[in-house]
Amino acid sequence: MITNFFIPELNNHDVHELWFQQDGVTCHTARATIDLLKDTFGDRLISRFGPVNWPPRSCDLTPLDYLLWGYVKSLVYADKPQTLDHLEDNIRRVIADIRPQMLESHQKLDVQIGLHPSQPWQFYARNHI
Questions:
Q1: Which end of the chain is more exposed for a tag (fewer CB within 10 A), N or C?
Q2: Which InterPro entries match (predicted)?
Q3: Is the whole model's pTM more than 0.70, yes or no?
Q4: Among the listed residues 100, 72, 102, 97, the one whose alpha carbon sits nearest the alpha carbon of residue 87
């Protein structure tokens, strides 16, 4: 998935300064996976066994766990994709449909209740969506 889908998609969008963060699940931290991600992202990798250690359950550095991934997963799997191509098409469609306003409204709520600072979401929404 990383080699055949994710990295080519990144190359299509010209995001050379992007940081990559993943959780500490065993399959995500296999040596081959970490080596591939280090080759792709260099020191801009936040991961268990990566150059920058992954901070588990940190709402400051893992806001995607608290909003985005559950939302994306629910839409990607809504029509129960039966093939890898169908799954990849759903991922592309769902990610493309995310608007900065959605992230900004979540950011404002987080700031109001004191969960995390607003700047990471503003930067992410403005530069990567």
A1: N
A2: RNaseH_sf (IPR036397)
A3: no
A4: 72
